[in-house]
Structure formats: C-alpha cells, structure tokens
C-alpha cells in the first residue's frame, strides 16, 4: 500500500492488488471517507497507518456497491452517502450473493480449492455486518464540511452506480479501482 498525502486536504490509500483504493478528505470539522474497503478490520488498518480515528469521520461516501468499497461501512456511525442504485444493489446483494447461505457456500468451496484464500475470506467475514448507505442521491449531491465544498456526481462506468467525488477548488478526487 502506498499512502499519499495531498497537501493538508487529502490522504489517498493506493492499494494495487489489495482491492479498492480509498481516500480521506480532511476538514477542520472532521473527515470525509471515500469507500470503506472489504472489512471492518481492513479499514481500521488504514486508519491506524495514518494515526487517524474512525470517530473523526463525519461522512462516508460509497462510490459503488462492490464489497471492496462497502463492507467496512459498519465501522462508522456517521451518514453513509451513495447513489440510489448503489443502495438498491446492496439490498439485492444481501438477498442474493451476499446472503449468509451463499457466503458460507463460497467459503466451503474456497476451503477445498485454496485454503489460503479461504483463511483470508474468513477474516473478511469475521464480525461482518453489511451496513447499507443511509443517505442517497440521484445525479448529484452537493455538500459542505468545515468550509470545504464537495460534490458527488453519478457517472456510471465501471458499474452503473459509479460516482466520483469532486472538490470544486481542487478538482476530481476519485481513485482508480
């Protein structure tokens, strides 16, 4: 993992081969977190790497529904913002591919095929409680935190629900997946 501090405004976690990249936007009133990784343990590890606390996060933004962007949501008590279709896809996932039965079946198959990956997945699932976004928007969300204006813009692309975070004073802050 490479941690890039972009002046005093942002921290980027660049994680080739580890799943999602993630970002923190720093304001005087707290942080905005862009994507929460694959598990509570994983997102906590990122915060420890920069000596930050999840309690300092005032807003989480899920850029799309994939598990490596959303399964760390449960760590945060602040609002979790996403495009409406991200919420819908996550709700569907809980009934289908993310149901306990399907995840347990996947783990059983993985134990036979690749015990190391099975151990990794077991750690991901440990204490996992998939937490849905509790604020949604349609095409664009404009907000302000600590004097910093930001926008979350629905673009589609990698997934139909894909969004980017735009800081009008700084430019686009969306990390490649």
List strands and helices in order, with pairings.
Blueprint: E1 2-6, E2 10-14, E3 22-27, E4 30-34, H1 40-49, E5 57-61, H2 67-70, E6 80-83, H3 84-95, H4 100-113, H5 115-125, E7 135-137, E8 140-145, E9 148-154, E10 163-167, E11 171-172
Parallel strand pairs: 4-5, 5-6, 6-7
Antiparallel strand pairs: 1-2, 2-3, 3-4, 8-9, 9-10, 10-11
Question: Describe it for me?
Answer:
The protein is α/β, with parallel strands linked by helices and 177 residues long. It has a single domain, classed as Metallo-beta-lactamase, Chain A, CATH 3.60.15.10. It has five helices and eleven strands. It has helices spanning 40-49, 67-70, 84-95, 100-113, 115-125, and strands at 2-6, 10-14, 22-27, 30-34, 57-61, 80-83, 135-137, 140-145, 148-154, 163-167, 171-172. Strand 1 (2-6) and strand 2 form a beta hairpin. Helix 4 (100-113) runs antiparallel to helix 5 (115-125). The protein is globular and about 50 Å long. The model has no long low-confidence stretch (mean pLDDT 92).
